[in-house]
Amino acid sequence: MYKNILYGLFFTVTIILLSFLYVLNKSIPSNFSQIIYLINKKYLFLSLCTLFFFHTFDNLRIFIIARTIGLNYPFLYGYIITLINSFGATVTPYFLGGELLLFYTLKRVGGEIYQIMYIATLKCVAGIFFYVIFLPFTIHSILNNPKEAKEIISLLFIIIFITTILFTLWKLFFKKGSEFINKEILRSVKYTISKYFTLCQDFFKQKKKVFLIIFIFTLFMYNSLLLTGVFLVKAFNEKAFIKKIFLAQLPLFYAIFMSPTPGGSGIGEIGALSIFDNFIGADFLGIFAILWRIITQYLSAIIGGVLFLMLIMKDAYKGNV
Fold first, then answer.
1. Domain range annotation of the chain
2. First to last CA, the chain
3. Do the beta carbons of residue 286 and residue 272 sit within 8 Å?
4. Helix or strand or coil: residue 21?
5. Can you give the pTM of this predicted structure?
6. Mean pLDDT score of the chain, rounded to an integer?
7. What are the Cα distances from residue 175, in Å, to 161, 168, 170, 172?
8. Residues 247-281: pLDDT tens digits?
9. Alpha helix stretches (DSSP H) within 259-298
10. Which residues of 126-163 are buried (b: 16+ CB within 10 A; e: fewer)?
């Protein structure tokens, strides 16, 4: 696991640096010091606050699911879970590492594999409901801004094409042999899957109200992330309308989560140039796009990465790794 995370981290940092250089090359301010004086500190603070709310709602939904199945841990530890999940999601394709590190953080507090699979499933189902509900608003935004939508869609296909080629080359040069799976492992997997399906079946039969609460927290969570971008735009352009900024982000939001690159890197930075062009002046657009990605994605990932390293060192010291 750790080796794959290191590979992903290297790959992610490379894409981020290249995309940042591209963004700055396309739009670089003549005077960086102007940004410090012109940016509205109140809206910048609100942007950071809504980022905190994003992690709070993510923490709440995991915490509630865990409590319903008898998995107890301190609420503050939940922030460590969600931040480390952000790190994992940022350094792995299709955000899969977020669920991978969920196993690590919950195993540390006594979680069984089938319980963690169950928590990850409910998170995923609630997230799908969000995408379904907001799909009409996204289509509305695409129809109202066809030029920006075309650029985002084209960029997404280009990134998928390049990523496919790179992944194919990686598999050719670093081809691994198949690993032997013994009967003991197969029995363990069968038992875990059986417990997992039983738990899921019981939950959806008996705890529909709990799922409704989780779904509401998921809506609040993703809306907080979108509002993080809204307030950041207002920090650069106080006259921009909140509703327009909110809706304009949706196509890029979907494209980022559909991107095969770790954390949607590349498409997030470059796509932001098209999406926020109507709200941010040309002189500050490049800096804004980078700052938007740092606050909405990479700040949490950096903090999560540091926390993950601290836990690894702590577990290694105790002999648990």
1. 2-172+211-318
2. 12
3. no
4. helix
5. 0.84
6. 82
7. 21, 10, 8, 6
8. 999 999 888 888 888 888 888 898 998 899 889 88
9. 267-275, 282-293
10. beeeeeeebeeebeebbeebeebbebbeebbeebeeeb
